[in-house]
Amino acid sequence: MNVDGHRQGWEITRDEWRALSLYGRFEQLITWVLAATIGLIVCVAAFRLVSDVVRLLLVQALNPLEHEVFQTVFGAIMTVLIALEFSHSIVHASARPKGIIQVRTVILIALLALTRKFIILDLKLVPASTILGLAVALLALGVTYWLLRNGEGLRLGLRPSPPDAAKPVR
């Protein structure tokens, strides 16, 4: 447990394990397997990212400001970040009482995936209609995320404002 008494992702006591239904135990085991698998994927992806960056920049002496090199490097970085966020959400889902991944987390991962798509997109090859469709999807997800975040704040008695400036309503 952490300082404020909340369970971390991997912690589960024997009493909690015994209290779980058969399906709850199954769900917990699958969560652990998924988290370990994604953790392995993140490690391999990070290793490949570092080796690719070294190869691109040092061995092939490519300029990181060239558009194709930038797309390759930052596309790989975004892939690792998406996998990390996905892993984080799975580990924390196992710590929640019902073990359910929150919709806000899924929307955040989708926003990251669309952002990655925009980074690796070759604007010379992709039709304008595809870019417009991606932009509309990004805007819809952004608005949904904002509404969820501010709706949660209103339920807690907070004013809708930037996350770092949220203060209780008097």
- Give the strand content: under 5%
Instruction: Please provide the count of β strands.
Output: 0
In terms of quaternary structure, the protein is single chain
Percent helix, as a range, is over 70%
* H/I helix tally: 5
Taken from the alpha-carbon principal axes, the silhouette is flat
Number of domains: 2
Structural class: mainly alpha
List keywords for this structure.
170 residues, 2 domains, 5 helices, flat
Description:
With about 170 residues, the chain is an all-alpha fold. It has two domains: about 1-105; about 120-170. Helices cover about 70% and strands about 0% of the residues. Helix 2 (about 20-60) runs antiparallel to helix 3, helix 3 runs antiparallel to helix 4 and helix 4 runs antiparallel to helix 5. It is flat, with a radius of gyration of 20 Å.
Set out the fold topology.
Blueprint: H1 14-19, H2 22-59, H3 67-95, H4 103-120, H5 128-155
Helix pairs in contact: 2-3, 3-4, 4-5
A few lines on this structure:
This protein has 170 residues and is mostly helical. Helix content is 70%, strand content 0%.
